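Support reply, case 0932

Customer input (verbatim):
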Amino acid sequence: QMQLVESGGRLVEPGGSLRLSCAASGRIFSNYYMGWFRQAPGKEREFVGYISGSGFSESYAGFVKSRFIISRDNAMNTAYLQMNNLKLEDTDIYYCAAGQAVGMEPEENEYWGQGTQVTVSS
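Our regenerated output:
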């Protein structure tokens, strides 16, 4: 099994920045695509972005509008989500996921973190 532990979520003002981390263990980290998703109460989990195992390829949801950047450090078994120019509508629980192939849909991902709360408020 692969374990994912997220951290970094907190309260931030509109226009601020935040970096979320996802620490992985239990499998060869570089073999997995890493994805970020977010979910509000009563709504479906939605795709934010993913990065390939090597870190060469990235893909993002349209709402990101170049504000977010996904990266990974395979030597540290860690993936990141850098969020800039945060908006009120970015308030959500953010989840890290891992899969052996491209996974823009939640069901395409094998492993999940526990989620971390991001609250954007003035």
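We compared this against your earlier run and they match. Two observations from our side: The two ends are 40 Å apart (CA to CA). The chain has a mean pLDDT of 96. Please reopen the case if you see a mismatch on your end.
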